[in-house]
Design goal:
alpha/beta, 8-stranded parallel sheet, 31% helix, binds D-xylitol-5-phosphate, binds zinc ion
Length: 220
């Protein structure tokens, strides 16, 4: 089944509690942690995650866009207060990706690997047994509201092919520029978790967009 994950980055931070309530029919709440080094932007970290965990009914899908994410794993995990479904690190940001994934699994949450648009998928093969979710970035990470990069479609297809050839069961997630127009393209290519920030939080009726995303991309 298709899962929808609104990205909090596009919420109105002057009234987070109300905005979070506007997306409670989604499957996950996607949290983008940025450090100003791995990406040219800074967002929020454990204190905000702790506050959000207290007010959302949704499981948290945490996307770490930070260098050496292993330094923050435990603090993030603790901040989630049992609400974290998955912690995703960028393959490019980990010197020892295999070890970092083991550390995430030791926290008893799902482990994800994110790849920037220009990063090849080859190394996934060697960590596949530790991975629950592969996040294919469909924009360059760091900012919401960017245009979807069409050249990521064949990459999603390649990742789905790898999944099949390895006989493993990780989910393919996409993030960046996802809206009711781009959703059918990424779903046809193999994506099953759709992150959307501006398309959902920027709408007058976020639940309508969540429904549209689900319907425009019906899969079994
Ligand atoms: C970008 C973040 C995304 C972002 C998506 O680096 O990882 O999660 O919030 O925003 P939209 O859906 O507006 O492209
Ligand atoms: Zn994200």
């Amino acid at each position: 089944m298709l899962k929808i994950a609104p990205s909090l980055l596009a919420a109105d931070f002057t009234c987070l509690e109300q905005d979070i309530a506007r997306v409670d029919k989604a499957d996950y709440l996607h949290l983008d942690v940025m450090d100003g080094r791995f990406v040219p932007n800074i967002s929020f970290g454990p204190p905000v995650i702790a506050a959000v965990a207290k007010i959302t009914p949704l499981p948290l899908d945490v996307h770490l866009m930070i260098e050496e994410p292993e330094r923050l794993l435990y603090d993030i995990f603790k901040a989630g207060q049992g609400k974290i479904d998955c912690i995703t690190v960028h393959g490019e940001a980990c010197r020892h990706l295999h070890r970092t994934l083991q550390e995430i699994k030791n926290l008893n949450v799902k482990a994800g690997v994110a790849l920037n648009p220009a990063t090849p998928i080859g190394s996934l093969k060697y960590v596949a047994s530790l991975v629950d979710r592969v996040l294919i970035m469909t924009v360059n990470p760091g900012f919401g509201g960017q245009a979807f990069l069409g050249e990521t479609i064949p990459k999603i297809e390649d990742t789905a092919g790898l999944l099949k050839s390895l006989g493993v069961s990780f989910e393919i997630e996409v993030d960046g520029g996802i809206d009711p127009k781009t959703a059918p393209l990424v779903v046809a290519a193999g994506a099953r978790v759709l992150v959307a920030g501006s398309a959902i939080f920027g709408a007058d009726h976020p639940h309508e967009v969540i429904r549209e995303l689900r319907e425009s991309s019906k899969v079994n």
